[in-house]
Amino acid sequence: MQEFVEIGEELVFLAMTIASIVAFAVFLERLLYFRKTMGKINDEFLTQVRGSLHEKPEITWEAPLTHTSSYWRFVHFALRQIGLGRKGLDESLEGQILSEKLELEKRLPILNTLGNNAPFIGLLGTVLGVIKAFYGLGTLGASGADVVMRSISTALLATAAGLGVAIPVVMANNYFSRKAKVILQNLEILKKEFLAYQMNKTKV
Where do the TM regions start and end (predicted)? Predict the structure, then answer.
């Protein structure tokens, strides 16, 4: 039994190491993705689009060729739909928003899963360590008190590692979820303004 407990401890720490690597990789990937969608350039682009929709009968601006943000994709899609004169613009734009939502929330479930389960994995490691410590106490008796205390100390490291992984992962997940929410709200605003633009253009 003792051998299985020791193997379990090693697997727990291995799982925590893998979880931290995966979480860091997802964090970097999402950080780079959101930097393409948010920032000064994207804010200026969004302001320019809204200004054109409000003040000009015809839209005369163009996005940079390297602009691949959610805003650019949505605006490009809306203009194409309007240019083709297709009906059901409201449903089409709503579908595009849902498509962007999938991209914005991509891989965030990984962070959510790791953030929720890392403390439990660490707790499992602590439980296994305590089992090992008490087994040693029963085998060695009072003479093995030092060994038992060291085993419990090592066991508590598993819980600390679990919290060490979970806390920054939850913070990162909340950060990206908030950014995604802001972008989607801006897309909803753009959707309403494009619908109003099409209506005014039809009247003219």
Answer: 12-33, 114-135, 155-176
- 3-7, 93-97, 105-109: segment of lowest average pLDDT: 3-7
* Domain limits, the chain: 2-203
List the end-to-end C-alpha distance of the chain, in Å, as a whole number: 82
Question: What is the average pLDDT score of the chain?
Answer: 81
Residue 61, φ and ψ in degrees, nearest 5: -90, 165
**What is the pTM (predicted TM-score) of this model?**
0.80
Give the whole-angstrom CA distance, residue 175 versus residue 124: 28
For tokens 């709503």, name the residue.
94
Report the distance separating Cα 123 and Cα 82, nearest Å: 56
Contact assessment for residue 63 and residue 45, using Cβ atoms and an 8 Å cutoff: yes
Question: Rounded to an integer, what distance in angstroms lies between the CA atom of residue 139 and that of residue 142?
Answer: 9
Paired tokens of 164? 């060490």
Query: What residues contact 78, with CB distance under 8 A and at least 6 apart?
Result: 89, 93, 96, 190, 191, 194
